[in-house]
TrEMBL record:
Descriptive protein name: Methylmalonyl-CoA epimerase
SUPFAM superfamilies the record matches: Glyoxalase/Bleomycin resistance protein/Dihydroxybiphenyl dioxygenase
Lineage: Bacteria, Pseudomonadati, Thermodesulfobacteriota, Desulfobacteria, Desulfobacterales
Keywords: Metal-binding
GO molecular function terms attached to this record: metal ion binding; methylmalonyl-CoA epimerase activity
GO BP: L-methylmalonyl-CoA metabolic process
Domain named VOC: residues: 5-135
Originating species: Desulfosarcina ovata subsp. ovata
InterPro entries, A to Z: Glyas_Bleomycin-R_OHBP_Dase, MMCE/EMCE_epimerase, VOC_core
Length: 137
């Protein structure tokens, strides 16, 4: 089912995004990869990826105040908001956890240029937004 931890997402304010990315990249000694809006399954996100060892750290912000991510930051402040797990077969992984009572935000996976994702509702995971991601090889 789950191959392992894919990474985690840190939500920040749009105004501080570049500064936060540069700070985290310097701390971990890595080069950030700035992502295009089309790299995301959900519209309205700006972001950068930091590859730290085997894990990915995504520093993300909403590009306007109507985006759910920006609303999360306005309500909760900046910080970790999502943990991502890579799976081999997204539909199979979804079925296995749905059979255990887990609820997803969407009934069907969302596509993006690198694969497909779906998000487990935080209420199903003790308040933690959780993502299953299937990377297309």
């Amino acid at each position: 089912m789950v191959k392992g931890l894919y990474g985690f997402n840190v939500a920040v304010k749009k105004e501080s995004h570049k500064e936060v990315v540069e700070r985290w990249a310097a701390i971990f000694g890595v080069q950030p990869v700035y992502l295009k809006p089309s790299d995301f399954a959900v519209p309205g996100i700006i972001g950068a990826k930091l590859k730290v060892g085997e894990a990915n750290i995504f520093i993300l912000a909403g590009d306007n105040e109507k985006v759910a991510l920006a609303q999360f930051v306005a309500k909760n402040g900046e910080g970790v908001f999502l943990v991502s797990f890579e799976v081999d077969d997204l539909e199979k992984a979804m079925k296995e956890v749905v059979d255990q009572g887990v609820k997803f935000v969407s009934d069907k996976p969302l596509s993006f240029p690198g694969g497909r994702v779906n998000f487990i509702h935080p209420k199903s995971m003790n308040g933690v937004q959780t993502e299953f991601i299937q990377i297309e090889k």
